[in-house]
Amino acid sequence: MHSVTNAAVSRVAKKPSPGPCRGSRPQSNSCPIKQLIVFLVQKKIYDEAIEYKWANMASRYVICARDWKKTGEPGTEPGATTYLEIPGKGDIHKKYALSRKDWLAKLSAAAETGKDEQGYAVGNVLIFIHGYNNNPPEVLKRHDLLQNGLWKYGYEGEVVSFDWPSGDWMLNYLEDRVDAKTTAMQLVSDGILPLAHSQKYQDETKCDISVHLLGHSTGAYVIREAFDDADDRSISSINWTVNQLALIGADVSARSMQAGNPESESLYRHAHRITNYSSPYDNALQVSNIKRAGVAPRAGRVGLPDDAPASAVNIDCGLHWKKNWDGKTNKQTGVPGNLSHSWHFGDATFMQDLALTLIGHIDRHSFPTRIAGERGLVLSASKA
């Protein structure tokens, strides 16, 4: 899968410099028409490569923290960690379970993007942690949208979904919060640490995989609790960190993200960079405030506090959502769930911004997808 796609994409990366138009002087600029033709050909090659990779996607990697029904289908209660390698058109099912060793070996091979100067394999893994009220088919739908969207904008690693036992109806919110906390530890012990092991022992494994996290909605709470529990229990001698941590529609209080707040100290300690995407139009977070019988504004709705650590950055997506998503339906967009809360999965501008964040080659203030606002960075309102 990767060899065909990467070869095609590499042809695009090595963009040939078109010569001058016939009859023009050597020192003149290239003909605009010829430049356009070359660009369209290159774009066609790249788009076909991505479509091939998507259509022939061999596997989807999932860490499942649910229990299992007798039929092999996932349940709705916390369970032992199961590692799944799911075929492109398969569902979350126990028949796709692998041992941790085999699963990690396959994931590492799929996530490899090249070799460093020492000849070690390097690559990227993004672990996606979904929110509440997500059933297994919806988790995979978002996994696919995320993987496909990121591939289109230059991210060459793999996506792993951490599937914790959220319910499939709105009134299950409070129980979901309990289950989220119960299974949070598994995210670190069975997800991050096995991958971080390759970073510490890269001289032995000849492999250095960068780990990133994306938390959606209550997934942000899962991450925060996981990091805090890991520190409290001192579960590992490895000084583990994740490279990029991104939050969308984060269902944690904005106040908890202040510098020095004990609820988020571990979060900042174990992440090199935190990017929070917020929107004042996220009405699901207004609902979560009511369900929690509290009034603490959520970070996914009002953004990070002004005194958040320098390693964190907030991206206000309100104008972008208002211009591109207000009034649209699930059927029109193909995105499941509350669109004010989950629009990111079908939005090209967001996917490009997230891909650039994961790649990490550009300063956060210089992204082509961002503009400066009165209170900080704003996601461009250009067409999604």
Description:
By secondary structure, this protein is of the alpha/beta class. The protein has two domains: 1-56; 59-379, Rossmann fold (3-Layer(aba) Sandwich), CATH 3.40.50.1820. Helices cover 41% and strands 21% of the residues. The protein has 14 helices and twelve strands. The chain has helices at 2-13, 32-55, 100-111, 136-152, 173-200, 202-205, 218-233, 265-269, 283-291, 299-302, 318-324, 330-333, 339-342, 348-359; strands at 59-68, 74-87, 97-98, 112-115, 121-129, 158-163, 207-216, 242-248, 271-278, 312-316, 370-372, 377-379. Strands 1, 2, 3, 4, 5, 6, 7, 8, 9, 10, 11 and 12 form a twelve-stranded mixed β-sheet that branches. α4 (136-152) crosses α14. The model is unreliable at 1-29 (pLDDT under 50).
What Rg do the Cα atoms give?
A: 21 Å
Superfamily (CATH H level) name of the largest domain: Alpha/Beta hydrolase fold, catalytic domain
Total beta strands = 12
Task: Please state the structural category.
Answer: alpha/beta
Oligomer: single chain
Q: Main sheet, how many strands, which sense, barrel?
A: 12 strands, mixed
* Percent of residues in helices: 40-55%
SS summary, helix count: 14
Number of domains: 2
Order of helices and strands: HHEEEHEEHEHHEHEHEHHEHHHHEE
Cα(first) to Cα(last) distance is 28 Å
| Beta-strand content | 15-25%
Give the second-level CATH assignment, the architecture of the largest domain. Answer: 3-Layer(aba) Sandwich
Query: Regions with pLDDT < 50 over 5+ consecutive residues?
Result: 1-29
| CATH C-level label of the largest domain | Alpha Beta
